[in-house]
Specification:
alpha+beta, CBS-domain, 2 domains, 4-stranded mixed sheet, two-stranded antiparallel sheet
Length: 373
């Protein structure tokens, strides 16, 4: 590959991570979308004796709607609002400023400001505003037809085409999972702060970009794990508690051995639940919301009567919902458990479905990163 000076590297075209099928889908969609918009607008223009019936910025809008339908700049309100507001700004500039150079620059500037204010930033809007000035259009009807009408028709066909071709439009972002997995080194707060420091419009939703980062981290962990199994990462024969273990004893065990999760098992070593620091702190906060530390001391204090208004045993506060994997499963299955929900620990079971070990997020990171180094 031709070596370019550092100063010119930014000008070199970068590869696009889309296959031929997606490129064909976008091209065909753009062609059909513009055809539908043009034919319908021509009919309406002839019927209402209005001209022009189609404007060039619609072609630029089509690129966004059909080639990158997940872009925030391609969403329905961005297209319709952006083009219509920009047309209005162009009309204002054209009617108030006779000098074409000043009118053109003012129209584009007002269009950008208007789209920011309307939360409908759409690059073709700048072209829409400029077109108004270049064609000396002063009739207010232009904002309604063709600007608004063209945009509505393009978006309307885009709703049908994109969804039929399995590209959700408008683009819906799934709610991000709770930020709890210790495998996630970059938190939502870190991510938001980094974007704030970047202080530029990024052509991708915050949530979607965050999901891509999460997916990248999972892929990296899979790569580092290679052919390892869950048994290779687990702490074998971990310390356990019984259902009736007093909370004070369970807490002391966790503090003494510096562990944050304690499997609760029956006599056959079948796992009944998982007791974690979070369980203790949750119950402590219930006992004394104003002073959680005092609540924790009260929680750990054994009851002096036959009946108690607070939990006493590990089985009473343990988490009944916990993640499990088989010891023989590939380590990548373990990674998925951490990334699928609010899990910092995963219980490992043997072939008889009995406790074989436990894996914490820190175990995974320590083992894999040392191995990669």
């Amino acid at each position: 590959m031709l070596s370019l000076p550092k100063t010119l590297e930014a000008f070199y075209p970068r590869p696009m991570a889309v296959n031929f099928q997606e490129r064909l889908r976008g091209a065909l969609g753009g062609a059909l979308g513009v055809a539908f918009t043009a034919a319908t607008s021509l009919y309406l223009g002839s019927l209402l004796h209005l001209s022009p019936w189609l404007v060039a910025p619609v072609g630029a809008s089509a690129v966004l709607v059909y080639a990158v339908p997940s872009s925030p700049l391609a969403q329905p309100w961005s297209v319709v609002g952006g083009n219509t507001i920009s047309a209005i700004m162009g009309l204002i500039a054209c009617n108030l400023v006779p000098d074409p150079v000043l009118a053109a620059s003012l129209a584009v500037g007002l269009a950008i400001a208007g789209m920011f204010a309307g939360r409908c930033l759409h690059p073709p809007g700048g072209a829409m505003a400029l077109l108004v000035v270049l064609t000396h259009t002063k009739a207010p009807v232009f904002a309604a037809f063709p600007a608004f009408t063209n945009s509505m028709l393009l978006v309307g066909f885009g709703l049908l085409y994109n969804n039929l071709t399995r590209r959700p439009y408008p683009h819906h972002i799934l709610a991000a999972p709770k930020q709890a997995s210790g495998l996630l080194r970059v938190s939502e707060t870190d991510f938001a702060e980094a974007l704030a420091q970047h202080n530029e419009v990024v052509d991708i939703d915050f949530e979607e970009l965050s999901q891509i980062v999460r997916a990248s981290e999972l892929i990296a962990y899979r790569r580092m794990a290679g052919a390892m199994t869950c048994a290779d990462l687990m702490t074998a024969d971990p310390i356990t508690a019984a259902f009736g273990t007093h909370l004070r004893d369970a807490w002391q065990i966790m503090q003494r051995h510096d562990i944050k999760a304690l499997p609760v098992v029956d006599r056959a070593r079948r796992v009944q639940g998982l007791l974690t620091h979070d369980d203790f702190h949750r119950e402590a906060a219930k006992l004394d919301p104003a002073d959680p530390q005092a609540g924790l001391m009260r929680l750990l204090e054994p009851a002096t009567t036959t009946h108690s208004d607070k939990p006493e045993a590990a089985g009473q506060i343990m988490d009944l919902v916990f993640a499990t994997v088989a010891a023989s499963e590939p380590a990548e299955h373990l990674m998925q458990k951490f990334f699928q929900g609010d899990h910092r620990h995963v219980v490992v079971l043997d072939e008889r479905q009995k406790l074989a070990g436990i894996v914490s997020a820190s175990d995974v990171m320590r083992t894999l990163f040392h191995r990669a180094a």
